[in-house]
């Protein structure tokens, strides 16, 4: 099987861990914690579910198949997956990291990993000269998100990987915003790819999960050791939810993108209320070309800066259909203020430095009728502008 949509449905193959006794078309949910040995001298593939569980194995094989990777690993959250990757490094190692990263990753780096004497340098990963100039003799990896959060600018996996490989270091990519449907980063040169499967891969706001893939055998051995020794595994029931979500990934993402385009056109018309829009391919610089050549689509997240005529808190409090909530990539639309919510872990000076202001809004466009989303945003703008005018008149 070579078609991507077929792989979404069947994983590695039609008979991969299917229950041949009953003909069940879904992968069985193996809840057993332990497995009986045939005899004391026999070798069992499964002995204890922290080490290997058949349901988790299916999901790990499935994400590896979608990424065209040799190895996949499933963790209890996206943050657990990120932490597992960082366990590859030791005191004295140096990592180049993007200046715009998920707030939880920022917290992990600054409040935990730096205390272990792992050194980090933040750079603009869209600026290749900036990336290369930050590499030092003890640098071990370059870590970035293909689409940065929340400004939606695209970093070239291909060009960063070329720099990394020239210096003999790893390229680590968090590809949560794109999934393997919109970009297969290993094929562009990345060594390790991370996904928060909580987002588009799960897709229904009902499971917390993280996934990692790699083709590097040594890295895979170390990731498995960490997974087994530390125990931050994804439970079988949660694996089933991610497997179910993956089956509809392409049809959902196609709809996310279609809806995002219509909402984008609407926001572009709101010249009095919206000061700036951030969406891949809309930056007006060289990152647009990267988006066109390395991505198959741009996803369903739009970030925009409100003008001073719109109170941001009043605006996000006003929608009746769109949920005021963190996260992204689900069937329902979600809206939030990064300054107060997803990026609140960053110190105020750090938020200001990277441009995360109180006026910045992040919208994860869901699968609703786009006309309903636009109507909901329209009434939110009207309410917020009215409240802002009243406050200004006081």
Automatic annotation (TrEMBL):
GO terms for molecular function: transaminase activity. Pfam families: Cys_Met_Meta_PP (PF01053). Belongs to the trans-sulfuration enzymes family. CDD domains: CGS_like. It comes from Apilactobacillus nanyangensis. Its cofactor is pyridoxal 5'-phosphate. This is PLP-dependent aspartate aminotransferase family protein. Keywords: Aminotransferase, Pyridoxal phosphate, Transferase.
């Amino acid at each position: 099987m070579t078609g991507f949509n077929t792989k979404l449905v069947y994983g590695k193959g039609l008979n991969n861990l299917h229950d041949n006794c009953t003909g069940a078309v879904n992968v069985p949910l193996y809840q057993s914690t332990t497995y009986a040995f045939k005899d004391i001298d026999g070798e069992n593939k499964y002995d204890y579910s922290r080490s290997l569980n058949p349901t988790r194995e299916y999901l790990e094989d499935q994400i590896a198949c979608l990424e065209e990777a040799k190895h996949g690993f499933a963790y209890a959250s996206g943050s657990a997956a990120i932490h597992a990757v960082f366990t590859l490094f030791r005191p004295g190692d140096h990592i180049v990291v993007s200046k715009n990263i998920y707030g939880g990753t920022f917290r992990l780096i600054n409040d935990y990993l730096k205390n272990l004497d792992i050194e980090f340098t933040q750079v603009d990963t869209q600026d290749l000269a900036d990336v290369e100039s930050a590499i030092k003799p003890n640098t071990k990896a370059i870590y970035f998100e293909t689409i940065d959060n929340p400004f939606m600018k695209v970093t070239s996996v291909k060009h960063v990987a070329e720099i990394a490989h020239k210096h003999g270091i790893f390229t680590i990519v968090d590809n949560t915003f794109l999934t393997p449907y919109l970009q297969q980063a290993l094929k562009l040169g990345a060594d390790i790819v991370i996904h928060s499967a909580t987002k588009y891969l799960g897709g229904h706001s009902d499971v917390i999960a993280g996934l990692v893939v790699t083709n590097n055998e040594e890295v895979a051995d170390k990731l498995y050791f960490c997974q087994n020794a530390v125990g931050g595994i994804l439970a079988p029931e949660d694996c089933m939810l991610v497997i179910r979500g993956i089956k509809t990934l392409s049809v959902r993402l196609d709809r996310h993108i279609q809806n995002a385009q219509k909402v984008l056109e609407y926001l572009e018309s709101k010249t009095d209320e919206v000061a700036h829009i951030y969406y891949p391919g809309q930056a007006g610089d060289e990152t647009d070309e990267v988006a066109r050549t390395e991505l198959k689509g741009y996803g369903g997240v739009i970030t925009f800066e409100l003008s001073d005529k719109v109170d941001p808190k009043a605006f996000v409090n006003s929608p009746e259909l769109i949920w005021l909530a963190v996260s992204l990539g689900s069937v329902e639309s979600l809206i939030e203020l990064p300054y107060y919510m997803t990026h609140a872990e960053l110190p105020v000076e750090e938020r200001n430095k990277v441009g995360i202001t109180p006026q910045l809004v992040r919208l994860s466009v869901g699968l609703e009728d786009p006309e309903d989303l636009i109507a909901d945003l329209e009434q939110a703008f009207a309410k917020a502008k009215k409240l802002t005018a009243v406050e200004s008149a006081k």
